[in-house]
Write a structure and sequence with these properties.
Blueprint lengths: L2 H4 L4 E8 L6 H11 L4 E8 L6 H12 L4 E3 L8 H10 L5 E4 L11 H11 L3 E5 L6 E3 L3 H18 L11 E4 H8 L9 H11 L4 E5 L1 E3 L10 H17 L1
Parallel strand pairs: 1-2, 1-4, 2-3, 5-8, 6-9
Antiparallel strand pairs: 4-7, 5-7
Helix pairs in contact: 6-9
This protein binds guanosine-5'-diphosphate-alpha-D-mannose (GDD).
The site of guanosine-5'-diphosphate-alpha-D-mannose has 26 residues, from β1, β2 and α4.
Subcellular location: Endoplasmic reticulum
GO molecular function, one term: dolichyl-phosphate beta-D-mannosyltransferase activity
Protein name: Dolichol-phosphate mannosyltransferase subunit 1
Length: about 240
């Protein structure tokens, strides 16, 4: 980004929810620092008492990078993705907030694109999308691809949000916008991503998109199960009736 980064006086709070991400978190943090050399940012890890000892690794990373650059805001047990973001947001000191997964499926190499896009467009939200030219998904089996595609097509058809990827979570928000929208969200699990973006469009916020390729995790396993799919369908009906 060259000169643009030097002129960028914003601060970015990167919120990373973790549950059993011991094998991924160090590489992720390394890559974030590598790809944002001239950017003012903090990383906020919201760990839900991961039994694999994710917090021990985060503490080691704090000793390397500093507790002002990596904040650990733990919760005692697994309480869901939506509330993990809310928890992280409470501790964010930046005027922009990035939300991304810990498992490297959201590659930090895209972070400069999010920042550049926001600065060029003045958007309130920049959302990573797998479903435009230049974006994609790598490493999912057919069932997972169909689930994601189906969830998006269903939501596009019923809710008309004008955003191509409703269920992705790699996003940059103006902090004030995130605080405003998050307060009206009721979802706690994965459906939270869709609710956020639908409510933001209904409130008239300006949303830009950047293509990303989502690469399935190498280490650990997805926490997306059948119960999350049922919750998604319930959430979709709820949004249909209330927005
Ligand atoms: N703190 C906390 N973190 C959690 C929890 N559940 C999951 N996470 C963390 O949230 C991130 C995403 O979890 P995954 O289980 O890896 O998600 P996924 O199945 O790959 O789903 C991804 O893609 C979906 C779209 O297809 C997204 O909807 C979803 O948010 C996520 O980005 C990871 O960093 C994981 O450790 C929780 O209850 N609490």
């Amino acid at each position: 980004m060259g000169n643009e980064q030097k002129e960028n006086s914003n601060k970015y709070s990167i919120i990373i929810p973790t549950y059993n991400e011991r094998l991924n978190i160090a590489l992720l943090v390394y890559l974030i620092f590598k790809h944002l050399p001239n950017v003012n940012f903090e990383i906020i890890v919201v760990d839900d008492g991961s039994p694999d000892g994710t917090q021990d690794i985060v503490k080691q990373l704090q000793s390397v990078y500093g507790e002002d650059r990596i904040l650990l805001r733990a919760r005692p047990k697994k309480l869901g993705l939506g509330t993990a973001y809310i928890h992280g947001l409470k501790h964010a000191s930046g005027n922009f907030v990035v939300i991304m997964d810990a498992d490297l499926s959201h590659h930090p190499k895209y972070l400069p694109n999010f920042i550049k896009k926001q600065m060029e467009t003045g958007a309130d939200i920049v959302t990573g999308t797998r479903y435009v030219k230049g974006g994609g998904v790598h490493g999912w089996n057919l069932m997972r691809k169909l689930t994601s595609r189906g969830a998006n097509v269903l939501a596009q058809t019923l809710l008309w949000p004008g955003v191509s990827d409703l269920t992705g979570s790699f996003r940059l928000y103006r902090k004030s916008v995130l605080e405003d929208v998050i307060g009206s969200c009721v979802s706690k699990g994965y459906v939270f991503q869709m609710e956020m973006i639908v409510r933001a469009t209904r409130k008239g916020y300006n949303i830009a998109e950047v293509p990303i390729t989502f690469v399935d995790r190498v280490y650990g396993s997805s926490k997306l199960g059948g119960s999350e799919i049922v919750e998604y369908l319930k959430g979709l009906i709820y949004l249909l009736l209330t927005t």
